[in-house]
Amino acid sequence: HAPISEDEFRLMQYLGYFNEDGVDNEIDMFEYVECQLLRLNLVSAQTLFEIKKRFIELDLDGGGTIDKSEILATSDAVYGKKVAKTEHSRIEHAVEYLKKLHTEMHEKKLLSRTRSVGEKRQSIDMLAEEERQRQAQLELNRSWKRIYKRSWFISACVFVAWLLSGIIFYSTWQGWDFWVSAYFTMQTGLSVGYGTPSEDDICYAPDELLSSGAWRYVKGEGMTYPSPAENGRGGCMAGDISKLFSVVLIVVGSSIIASTIGILAKNLMNPPGGWYKQLIQEEENNHFRKIAEETEGWIDD
Known about the structure:
Layout lengths: L5 H9 L11 E3 H12 L4 H14 L6 E3 H6 L2 H4 L7 H28 L2 H26 L8 H23 L4 H12 L22 H8 L17 H33 L5 H20 L7
Antiparallel strand pairs: 1-2
Helix pairs in contact: 1-6, 2-3, 8-9, 8-11
């Protein structure tokens, strides 16, 4: 299991663990979970489950409590394994660290209580202005002005670039017109449609229809293979080069389709307008933090 962290050392101080005034030096699950929730200001079921799971990990002997020996046995994360450690130095370190934290919290609350109405209102106005600017930025990101940041727009641009690369290659290499090249690119790269025309047609095309780049791979010495009638496979080097490009086109095209499906699935699971759920969650968390800061309890004693 993971060693105890500095945050968990703080919880020991909240519980009075290192207080010498008659405490039992043990922390049960209820106390541990209560203090974790107070520190995190979170109350979700998933968070509660993770906290309980962490308590079980720290309870080395399975006795239902975390005692001093278990705390000290798992404190390497705070001090490091190469540093000489004693029980006194560990506890002293934790106490000093937690006193500093407690003092900062106390000073923050005192500052909040001593501020005038005007200062509090100014602080609220500043927070409201920051929230207004944040919401304005979110609205701008959702507008057409920021369409270039949308994942689906980027996918569409990549698809168009992929399609154009196929059209340019087949138009120049095979000598096909625009629409035939576009169709062949999509039916090959996306595995749709019929496998026509054949890429080996270039091997039997007249000289005037061959591009300068493909001519040498058709008419060059040894570039044309024996026909099936001559116990060969037919075709030529130019057709093989075209097929090799098609293989690359298929690999890239399948990656684009897979990415597009992932983006569509994400949009279906989190449709436009779902952003308000995150906003509501943030407001709830802020509310809990405010309650925790303003509540007088054993943590301030």
